[in-house]
Amino acid sequence: MTTATTTATTTGTIDWSMRTGGHLAAAERRRLIADLARVQVRNAFGRLSLLAHLNPGRNTYVPPAQLVPPDSTLTRAATDAATRVLPATLLNHSYRAYRFGRALGELEKIDVDAELLFAAALLHDTGLVVASGRDDFTLTSARVARDVAEQAGLSTTATETLQTAITMHHSPRVTLAAGPVAYLLSAGAGADVVGMRCWDLPPAMLADAVRDHPREGFKGFFSRAWANEAARVPGGRAQLLRRYGAFTAAIALAPFDE
Length: 258
Prior knowledge:
mainly alpha
């Protein structure tokens, strides 16, 4: 299985999250705000390409067979855990996040461990439902992932890759340097939540994903859940996105009908 090298000092990794509880230091906050500004500029140009029907995704194709979730002990355990915890709205989001992330990986010809990506996608928002206390919700999600990994007999390094993808996914501008699983989970979730990089994806594939896993009022549900998370952890990334990223408006403006 593909793994990524991480350190306790890299913002968003499982080691960093366990050490800080997801609370940002001043320098980390400034760095993420700069990353967020770059993301917003990219989003603006991408959305303009959609409006002008010049988006590159209209000329791309991803074979549907490449987007079918893998069947393994790990993916079955992840599906069982997610189904027990998540309401249908978030469960469907998790499936769409996997499909969008996997499709972007195919278009970029990225070699990714599909089992780890699927498990990360299914589990990344479990903490948004059940987290308590003052720590970032992704730490709770990562603990769920750890239990699933133990059940599936995953190696220590693969478990760290899975957990870091989850704890890092809502950082602005996650790059491939974080590893293929973290990069594509963040990209897939961002595509579904705020429409990031939808312009790179085939329109038919986007429509198929929403047909197979309906949004069911996702925008309103997710906006409320995110507001609750930001209020619960005011020093975390959720609050940073709300304050500096106009995140509620970005969710509402995502190019999906509900």
